[in-house]
Structure formats: C-alpha cells, structure tokens
Amino acid sequence: MSPHTTSSPDLLDVADPDQAHWIELPSHRSSVRVARRCVRTRIDGWGLSEELCADAVLLVSELATNAVRHTPSVRILCGLGMVSAGCLRVEVHDHDYSGRGLDRCEPGLDDESGRGLLLVGQLADAWGVDRSRLTGGNAVWATLRA
Prior knowledge:
6 strands; disordered N terminus; 35% helix; alpha+beta; six-stranded antiparallel sheet; 4 helices; single chain
C-alpha cells in the first residue's frame, strides 16, 4: 500500500507549511497502522515531546479506525498540524455523505469495542465533527496542547 502524502497549509489553517502534514489512505484496517506510523514520524521530526506524540498517535488511531469501520469511505484523509504555538490538531476526513455525523454509543462492561470516542474526549483538549470541505463527508478533529 502506498499512501499519498502532501503538505498543505490552507487545510489545517497553519501559517508554516512545514508544520502541516496530510496522508491519504485506502479505507482499510491496515491503513490505521500506516497513519499511526506517519504521525509518529512527523511529530518526531518536529521535535515534539514523546508524551504528545503518544497522545496524537492514539487519537489518529481511534479516529481513523472509526472512519474505516463505520463509514462507506473508499479512502480516508488524515491531517496533522501545529495550528498555533503549542497546539497540535489531528483530523480524519471520510466520505460519509449521509450527514448524520457520529453515532454516540454507550458500551457495556463486557463490550470489546465502542470506547474510541470516549478515549478521544478524555485525551483531547477539544474535539468535534464538521462537514469536510475536502471530501464532503465528516471531518473529525481533535486538538492537543504541546
């Protein structure tokens, strides 16, 4: 699998193009691993803390997994950028045109899945869902303080 990578300052609203990174991947379970590795590599290259890196990797893993598992997307778009001094933003865009947003779920004690957005909510300083101007689907984003 060969991901398509690009830097684009206008997508993540960053001032410095070197502080944004995008990767487009097939909507497949193996793409989540690729997204995690790309985030780790980029954050390491930016010289950010290991704690921030671990948190960002977990966020992109959860958001990309949701896009792969719960939308009819053929491809997903993962973005990472320093949107301001000390604020890292992670985005995952899908191709779910239904307009229904994200389903909230309340996993039971014995459920093996369904806790991804709960983790995102606990880990991120802020997160949300918007319509993607890039794909027309969902743009799920989360921010972390560096």
